[in-house]
Structure to design on (1186 residues):
């Protein structure tokens, strides 16, 4: 097994790493770039806890090979806040108690941010379907949906 | 400790930001799998492909020869535990020795320099099995002549002549059943079945273990109880508890499922053998195959009712299987089944049965959802048969303070009637049922626990407060503990910081379970704060030169108690703390105790559902949860428990189940086919918090976490059954099952 | 395991043909990585076709749409003309997996994964889509229903792979629809499914109809429904015949996702409902 030198842009910074051919982008982010915010809940694209953006779309980083990231632009939860200034979604999740254990939260935030970029005023149904691939076992989703709605309203204002 | 009058709170009952919020929305929070150590190895567990087999041999030579492999362990590496059958079962569940009892049972583990090498090495271990007959169905396992899962597990109270898989029997209740049934106008007896379900936490079990040559160890793990984990790991490895320090990571959900060890003793054994730190993380597949599902059950329920809706007698037989190991969960079910009702005659019988399934572990109100599902379904059917309003019937029969419960306890102040009346008055119940939809209602109950608790509270010289407690924060408890400390000391919430201390720092704390943390740790925190306050009043008295008894604590400051005590301006906590080095040194409070008086918990749920009559698919249109929370310390997180618990119960009701092949192999060990509710499945979950103070807590707090998973099973059964005009008696009510009922074959 | 990122179809084909071990084509990777994770396959070579010219593009061709093999399904829904012309194909593709999976998964991959339950395949079959296959002997065009030959098996020869799929031009008053049954609202594999593609005449009478069913046989099943639908305005009698024909054609199995009885009944329900949607769209 030979590694490949990969260059990509993560949260605005150019990074380089050696990826084994079978290694997932999630493992690269976590164990080679020390970005532990994306979580592996299933490894099969069913839970969304590893959600990151890849060239402008949200993906499950467990379903992307590290070698595929050559030349790619990647965004993770670690890049969401501007220094100490939280993104409105992050603040809304705290203010609306939209997390209990918090393991799904990074993936949901990255996914919700992309939703609001595409649709600044989503309906409840649109939020629920957009986030259907982000499992949360603690909250029953109610407060997550409300937090996304609140952040959207704030961002529109 | 009774409440004299309704208390006015300054901080308790507010909704401040949780202290771990920023870490958790920025990806900084460190969960079980997020820590690494220098020189760390990666581990992989090899699991049985068979439901039941004798292990004839294990050949690890090919795996050992693989470059990068540093250690391999099997059952032979764990000294057998003598004298504690329960802990021996835990040990055998962590690593099989002579037999495997379920598909997914661990048989060996490898530590290597990379995960890929560890995975490859695990596949190189050759295990020779002699396959034995298996049984996974609870009724089949009870039948005479069933394949025997494990010999010699039967306890004395099991009558002779039953299947060797029946290990335990219990009975609860009071009154004359025959006389009760004789008074009934209508008696029905129904059989129910429920599938095994999984807690479904999103974070798989993960730990980092480090044993050194001097026999000491460090363990970092996602757990609901690091003190129990220390006890269990020490026992399983045969070392002293003090040799091991366990630190709880942030925990990515547990719901009872992380109250038991699986990976931890294995990782420690590998680390001991390799002389290196070892990371062991389960895959999702392993979580489903190897860790705690609920019981699978078969229940018979018989209830008699008069035509005006009085329940005259109730009887239930609960046949529970928690897999290949003895469990007492049937007791919980048998005690909880009829707890909502004030009955003259009630009897419940619990049976535990072994099957070739993974060892059951607690899942939110373990044993209660299934038992109460049967009772609440049967009552609803009686209401239909007698043309009675299901809420009125429940109000008529509801248990209240002074009721002798079906499990013997006489209830104190509690909120079932309040919840039922709130439901009856609520717009949801009073709105017309939408076109094409149907409505269901059901009650739920959980005991709540207190238990072993140890808290230290330290006053900093700058007037801030540090609370050290020993229960992992699974859903916002650091916020509620900080609120109670702030309330008791009269300092702002922001001045308090609550941390989860490791096992080396505090005395034993029971697991984060039994809905105990906000109640018991809160109570211990209040007592520790009271001790610190007492000390601070003593110091203020000394500074003022008056008797300590002449000082009281008002609004965060020591003040003279009445005009006779002298005239001094209030001395704030910060002022006292600043002078502490001159007044006798550090100021702290401590509490170690066994909390009791947890206070029972009841809830009532209402659901509107629409069933697609052509496909049997159910959509939940509207859902409302009513629950007595005692005093809601942080209402956001009380609502969160009610909403999250309800949705887990809805999952149990509609789609979640372990599906087995005829070879006893789990067919759906992943989130693709083990179908937990997704965001688009659910409506908003409306919550109504009732606050009936718990007399066992100075603020009236009672646990809220478990009860909300209980009512949804029957709430949805009652709604769907009314909607399709056919009664359903089995969970989950997956579309094929509902369609079959609709089509009547 | 090795990973290759060829820049021409010829190079990709050469790599695939020359690999002595197991070679796998990767577009979105949403099936392949799940198989890797489970240890189901251990390829010696992965050939990533996302960087071939045109692979990530939807181009207009003879009034139809040529969809590159690496176009993620989310991009299909972003092409308004495509949605207007082939709403059923787009909704079928959009149902696969989560939003995250939509950012990667492709219809060419869905076709080559050859699951009888693949959502986009019945819609592609009903649409008369044609796959362009590149291989050691150059290019050939193949009707999509000829690609899967059984669960996990395709008719593609060694060194061959799909570079694009063509959805043909649409006449006026034509539309398609796709429905699947799943126990939840999202995130499940289809228990059974039906795609219906209708062309109406000027009077609203069905002139042509194609129906394809998913997850009720080893491959997607095209059912000849001309007798039931053509010449009707899709009245209840026609829909009843359609539902019966669909149920009669179904040859499902019982498994963890559904029973024979359930699939047989529900596939008829879905065919009827999808036909009504397609008709309403076409008549608009």
């Amino acid at each position: 097994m030979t590694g490949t030198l990969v260059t990509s842009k993560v949260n605005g910074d150019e990074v380089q790493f050696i990826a084994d051919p079978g290694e997932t982008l999630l493992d690269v982010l976590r164990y080679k770039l020390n970005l532990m915010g994306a979580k592996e809940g299933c490894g099969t694209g069913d839970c969304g806890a590893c959600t990151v953006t890849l060239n402008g779309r949200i993906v499950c980083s467990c379903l992307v090979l590290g070698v595929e990231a050559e030349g790619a632009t990647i965004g993770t939860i670690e890049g969401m806040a501007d220094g100490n200034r939280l993104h409105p979604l992050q603040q809304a999740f705290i203010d609306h108690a939209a997390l209990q254990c918090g393991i799904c939260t990074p993936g949901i935030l990255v996914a919700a941010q992309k939703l609001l970029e595409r649709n600044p005023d989503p309906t409840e149904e649109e939020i629920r379907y957009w986030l259907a691939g982000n499992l949360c076992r603690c909250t029953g989703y109610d407060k997550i949906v409300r937090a996304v709605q609140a952040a959207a309203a704030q961002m529109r204002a | 400790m009774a409440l004299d009058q309704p208390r006015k709170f300054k901080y308790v009952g507010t909704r401040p930001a949780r202290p771990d919020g920023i870490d958790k929305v920025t990806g900084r929070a460190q969960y079980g799998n997020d820590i690494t150590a220098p020189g760390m190895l990666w581990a992989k567990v090899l699991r049985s492909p068979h439901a039941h087999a004798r292990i004839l041999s294990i050949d690890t030579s090919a795996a050992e020869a693989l470059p990068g492999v540093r250690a391999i362990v099997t059952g032979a590496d764990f000294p057998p535990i003598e004298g504690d059958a329960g802990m021996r079962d835990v040990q055998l569940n962590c690593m099989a020795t002579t037999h495997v009892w379920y598909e997914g049972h661990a048989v060996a583990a490898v530590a290597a320099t990379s995960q890929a090498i560890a995975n490859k090495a695990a596949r190189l271990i050759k295990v020779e099995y002699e396959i034995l007959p298996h049984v996974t169905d609870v009724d089949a396992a009870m039948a005479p002549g069933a394949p025997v899962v494990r010999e010699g597990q039967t306890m004395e109270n099991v009558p002779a002549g039953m299947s060797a898989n029946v290990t335990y029997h219990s009975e609860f209740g009071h009154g004359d059943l025959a006389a009760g049934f004789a008074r009934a106008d209508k008696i029905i007896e129904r059989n129910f079945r429920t599938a095994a379900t999984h807690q479904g936490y999103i974070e798989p079990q993960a730990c980092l273990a480090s044993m050194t040559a001097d026999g000491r160890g460090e363990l970092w793990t996602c757990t609901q109880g690091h003190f129990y984990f220390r006890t269990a790991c020490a026992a399983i490895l045969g070392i002293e508890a003090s040799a091991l320090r366990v630190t709880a990571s942030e925990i990515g959900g547990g719901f009872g499922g992380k109250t038991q060890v699986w990976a931890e003793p294995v990782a420690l054994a590998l680390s001991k053998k390799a002389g290196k730190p070892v990371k062991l993380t389960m895959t999702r597949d392993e979580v489903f195959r190897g860790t705690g599902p609920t019981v699978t059950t078969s229940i018979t329920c018989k209830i008699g009712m008069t035509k005006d809706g009085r329940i005259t007698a109730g009887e239930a037989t609960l046949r529970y299987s928690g897999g290949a190991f003895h469990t007492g969960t049937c007791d919980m079910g048998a005690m909880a089944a009829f707890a909502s009702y004030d009955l003259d005659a009630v009897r419940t019988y619990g049976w535990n049965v072994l099957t070739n399934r993974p060892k059951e572990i607690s899942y939110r109100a373990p044993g209660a959802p299934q038992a109460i599902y049967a009772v609440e379904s049967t009552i609803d059917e009686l209401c239909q048969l007698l043309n009675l309003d299901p809420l009125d019937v429940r109000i008529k029969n509801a248990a209240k303070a002074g009721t002798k419960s079906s499990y013997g306890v006489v209830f104190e102040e509690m909120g079932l009637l309040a919840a039922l009346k709130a439901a009856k008055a609520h717009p949801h119940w009073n709105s017309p049922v939408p076109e094409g939809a149907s409505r269901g209602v059901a009650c739920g109950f959980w005991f709540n626990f207190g238990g072993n608790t140890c808290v230290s509270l330290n006053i900093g010289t700058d007037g801030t407060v540090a609370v050290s407690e020993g229960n992992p924060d699974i859903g916002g408890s650091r916020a509620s503990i900080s609120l109670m400390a702030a309330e008791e000391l009269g300092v702002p919430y922001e001045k308090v910081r609550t941390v989860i201390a490791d096992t080396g720092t505090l005395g034993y704390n029971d697991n984060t379970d039994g809905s105990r943390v906000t109640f018991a740790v809160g109570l211990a925190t209040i007592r520790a704060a009271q001790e610190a306050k007492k000390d601070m009043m003593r110091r203020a008295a000394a500074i003022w030169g008056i008797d300590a008894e002449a000082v009281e604590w008002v609004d965060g400051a020591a003040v003279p108690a009445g005009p006779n005590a002298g005239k001094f301006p209030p001395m704030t906590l910060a002022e006292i703390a600043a002078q502490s080095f001159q007044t006798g040194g550090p100021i702290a409070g401590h509490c170690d105790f066994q909390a009791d008086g947890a206070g029972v918990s009841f809830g009532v749920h209402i659901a509107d559902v629409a069933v697609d009559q052509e496909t049997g698919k159910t959509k939940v249109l509207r859902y409302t949860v009513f629950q007595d929370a005692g005093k809601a310390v942080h209402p956001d997180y009380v609502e969160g428990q009610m909403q999250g618990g309800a949705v887990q119960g809805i999952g149990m009701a509609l789609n979640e189940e372990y599906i087995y092949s005829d070879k006893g192999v789990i067919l759906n060990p992943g989130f693709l086919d083990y179908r937990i509710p997704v965001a688009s499945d659910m409506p908003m979950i409306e919550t109504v918090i009732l606050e009936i103070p718990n007399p066992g807590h100075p603020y009236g707090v009672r646990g809220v976490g478990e009860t909300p998973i209980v009512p949804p099973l029957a709430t949805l059964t009652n709604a769907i059954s009314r909607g399709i005009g056919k009664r359903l008696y089995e969970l989950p009510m997956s579309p094929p099952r509902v369609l079959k009922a609709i089509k009547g074959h | 395991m090795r990973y290759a990122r060829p820049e021409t179809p010829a190079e990709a084909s050469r790599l695939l043909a020359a690999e002595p071990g197991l070679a796998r084509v990767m577009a979105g990777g949403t099936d392949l990585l799940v198989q890797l994770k489970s240890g189901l396959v251990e390829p010696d070579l992965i050939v990533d076709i996302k960087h071939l010219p045109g692979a990530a593009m939807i181009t207009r061709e003879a009034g139809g749409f040529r969809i590159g093999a690496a176009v993620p399904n989310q991009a299909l829904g972003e092409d308004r003309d495509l949605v207007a012309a082939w709403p059923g194909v787009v909704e079928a593709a959009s149902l696969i997996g989560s939003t995250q999976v939509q950012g990667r998964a492709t219809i060419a991959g869905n076709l080559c994964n050859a699951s009888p339950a693949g959502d986009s395949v019945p819609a592609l079959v009903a649409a008369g889509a044609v796959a362009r296959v590149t291989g050691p002997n150059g290019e050939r065009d193949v009707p999509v229903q000829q690609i899967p030959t059984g669960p996990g098996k395709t008719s593609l020869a060694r060194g061959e792979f799909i570079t694009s799929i063509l959805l043909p031009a649409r006449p006026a008053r034509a539309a398609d629809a796709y429905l699947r049954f799943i126990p939840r609202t999202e995130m499940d594999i289809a228990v059974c499914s039906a795609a219906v593609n209708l062309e109406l005449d000027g009077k609203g009478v069905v002139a042509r109809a194609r129906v394809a069913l998913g997850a009720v046989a080893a491959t997607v099943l095209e059912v000849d429904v001309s007798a039931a639908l053509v010449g009707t305005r899709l009245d209840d009698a026609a829909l009843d015949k359609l539902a019966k024909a669909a149920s009669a054609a179904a040859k499902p199995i019982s498994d963890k996702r559904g029973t024979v009885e359930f699939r047989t009944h529900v596939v008829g329900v879905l065919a009827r409902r999808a036909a009504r949607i397609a008709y309403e769209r076409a008549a608009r």
In short: Residues 517-544 of chain B form the longest helix (28 residues).
